Amino acid sequence: MDYGFSNEKQSKVAIISSKSSFSVMGIQKKLQESGIEGVPVRPSIFQIEEAIEESEPIIYYLDDEIYTPSGEDFLNEMRKLCLEQERLLILVGEEAEYEKATEIIPKSAIVGWFNRPVDMDALLETLEKALGGEIKPARQRHILIVDDDATYMRMLHEWMKDRYQITMLDAGTKAIHWLMDNSQNVDLILLDCEMPSMDGPTVFRMLKEDPGSRNIPVMFLTGKSDRDMVIRAVGLGPEDYILKSIDKKELMDKLEDFFGRLKTMEDSDQEEVSDGKTGVVF
């Protein structure tokens, strides 16, 4: 399959590896044959920023270094780089290495993962889409939490602050007024079912009646696990519901799964727009 790139300026891809290896050199050689310059770098944000432009992808070749304190520090730096600068990241590694890396870097921030030995045709296809703008980089998602329990909101903020932008409001009326000016910047609302003055279901209905906020996904927060409350919440048609007894890992997995599906839909919409512009029919 021909993956030659005809850009006047040769495209670049940073290849991060903590050590030299024949596998990394093999990837670099295949990229070169396809018209892409693979620039090898050590696990260093400075080296990455010196090697490529912000719009150019990064291949991170995982190895046992990620299990060390310095490796975990670099994974945290990569998480910030991907979310704050919206970089395109591709991981290469065994399943266990991938799972370790995604404990720190959100799966929704990764545009591709390839097990070893690497399927180069699939890797080149992903790079072609990334360089052609068909795959959009992840951005830091913005979650609005609406709950009258300040202690619970602070706990959620502490759990999520490293991965997401968080706004907290302690009343439904405040949320409705705040969203009048900020609805375009919110990706998900976590809404408490039971609040004084205006409860969650009332707020939900008002949000869905307003054109500016009706398309924002909502997940209900409920402190009750009884069947009637769950049925009532689900019956209103939210994206999901979350029991307040949920632990951190389960919550983060639920959010990661949701934003992963959201990004897939966004990429699909972008691909349809691109196909429409170029007249390509599949």
Automatic annotation (TrEMBL):
Keywords noted in UniProt: Phosphoprotein
InterPro entries, A to Z: Bact_response_regulator, CheY-like_superfamily, Sig_transdc_resp-reg_receiver
UniProt cross-references to SUPFAM superfamilies, sorted A to Z: CheY-like (SSF52172)
Domain called Response regulatory: residue spans: 142-259
Keyword presence, DNA-binding: no
Transmembrane annotation, as ranges: none
The keyword Phosphoprotein belongs to this UniProt entry's keyword annotation: yes
Residues found modified as 4-aspartylphosphate: D192
Source organism, top-level taxon: Bacteria
Biological process according to GO: phosphorelay signal transduction system
Listed PANTHER family: RESPONSE REGULATORY DOMAIN-CONTAINING PROTEIN, STRESS RESPONSE REGULATOR PROTEIN 1
Function: May play the central regulatory role in sporulation. It may be an element of the effector pathway responsible for the activation of sporulation genes in response to nutritional stress. Spo0A may act in concert with spo0H (a sigma factor) to control the expression of some genes that are critical to the sporulation process.
Protein name: Stage 0 sporulation protein A homolog
Organism: Pseudobutyrivibrio ruminis
